[in-house]
């Protein structure tokens, strides 16, 4: 696999979070929120509270065209943009969260937003702010070399979204180009699904471990604490996004408190299942 030499201190926080959860015989809990949703202030309040329960926070860069996301995240991204999100808000959030907690920070962004900001500047500023890595679900093949070079230079991990039906050779190639961990879909399709986890998910996680050698996070479709408990039994990390945003939408008068309550519920979920021996 390709990593920086050595990984940045911010990337090492992800390694530490995964090591701690592994020592506790559970998956790490990752929670996703678009920065700036529902407003800049409420977003920061929610993230600070979520950090009290999460091992990893996945900071979303709002996109005007979040084509791989379902309607919940699409609506949240649109609201964040309408509230005035700028890329500097991402770095500000990362700085504040790094200063106030030991929670590891990753960023989820579509490529267009990174390219518009400047690839090298984005990587350098993300690490300086405390971000340890990035998930770029639509990273174009033509831009991959530029991104990997910038990420390695900065000490960032690059976390790939794995196609559920990828061949063994494809998995090995993605693992060789990636670092930190890999990300597997818990359900087919876009984010926000509210249906049972894929029955093939445990097998996919096993294949990913064999062919990439990296820890495996499971997300996209973790809609209940019971789902989190189920996935915690065989994965290294469980990532929840749309379910947290739904809670915030349902309690629009107190979105930060709703996010905190959701975080506590999902944290309890990952602790319900003892992991099988890998």
Automatic annotation (TrEMBL):
Pathway: Amino-acid biosynthesis; L-tryptophan biosynthesis; L-tryptophan from chorismate: step 5/5
Signal sequence, renumbered to the chain: none
Enzyme Commission number, as recorded: 4.2.1.20
InterPro entries per UniProt: Aldolase_TIM, RibuloseP-bd_barrel, Trp_synthase_suA
Entry keyword set: Amino-acid biosynthesis, Aromatic amino acid biosynthesis, Lyase, Tryptophan biosynthesis
Gene3D superfamilies: Aldolase class I (3.20.20.70)
CDD domains, sorted: Tryptophan_synthase_alpha (cd04724)
Main EC class the enzyme belongs to: lyase
GO molecular function annotations of the record: tryptophan synthase activity
A Pfam family matched in the record: Trp_syntA
Active site annotation, chain numbering: 58 (proton acceptor), 69 (proton acceptor)
Catalytic reaction(s) noted: (1S,2R)-1-C-(indol-3-yl)glycerol 3-phosphate + L-serine = D-glyceraldehyde 3-phosphate + L-tryptophan + H2O
GO CC terms in record: cytosol
Protein function: The alpha subunit is responsible for the aldol cleavage of indoleglycerol phosphate to indole and glyceraldehyde 3-phosphate.
Record note on quaternary structure: Tetramer of two alpha and two beta chains.
Family, similarity comment: Belongs to the TrpA family.
Name recorded for this polypeptide: Tryptophan synthase alpha chain
Biological source species: Streptomyces chartreusis
Name of encoding gene: trpA
């Amino acid at each position: 696999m390709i990593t920086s030499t050595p990984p940045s201190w911010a990337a090492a926080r992800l390694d530490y979070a995964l090591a701690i959860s592994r020592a506790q015989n559970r998956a790490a809990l990752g929670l996703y929120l678009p920065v700036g949703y529902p407003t800049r202030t409420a977003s920061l309040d929610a993230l600070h509270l979520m950090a009290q329960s999460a091992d990893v926070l996945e900071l979303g860069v709002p996109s005007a065209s979040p084509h791989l996301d379902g309607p919940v995240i699409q609506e949240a991204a649109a609201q964040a943009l309408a509230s005035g999100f700028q890329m500097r808000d991402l770095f500000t959030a990362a700085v504040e969260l790094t200063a106030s907690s030991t929670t590891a920070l990753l960023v989820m962004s579509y490529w267009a937003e990174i390219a518009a900001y400047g690839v090298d500047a984005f990587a350098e500023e993300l690490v300086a702010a405390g971000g340890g890595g990035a998930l770029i679900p639509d990273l174009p093949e033509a831009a991959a070399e530029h991104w990997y070079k910038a990420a390695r230079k900065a000490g960032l991990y690059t976390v790939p979204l794995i196609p559920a039906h990828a061949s063994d050779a494809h998995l090995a190639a993605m693992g060789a180009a990636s670092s930190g961990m890999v990300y597997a879909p818990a359900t087919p399709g876009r984010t926000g699904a509210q249906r049972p986890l894929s029955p093939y998910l445990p097998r996919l996680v096993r294949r990913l471990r064999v062919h990439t050698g990296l820890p495996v996070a499971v997300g996209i479709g973790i809609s209940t604490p019971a789902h989190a408990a189920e996935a915690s039994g065989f994965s290294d990390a469980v990532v929840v996004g749309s379910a947290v945003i739904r809670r915030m939408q349902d309690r629009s008068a107190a979105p930060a408190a709703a996010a905190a309550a959701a975080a506590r519920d999902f944290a309890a979920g990952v602790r319900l299942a003892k992991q099988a021996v890998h």
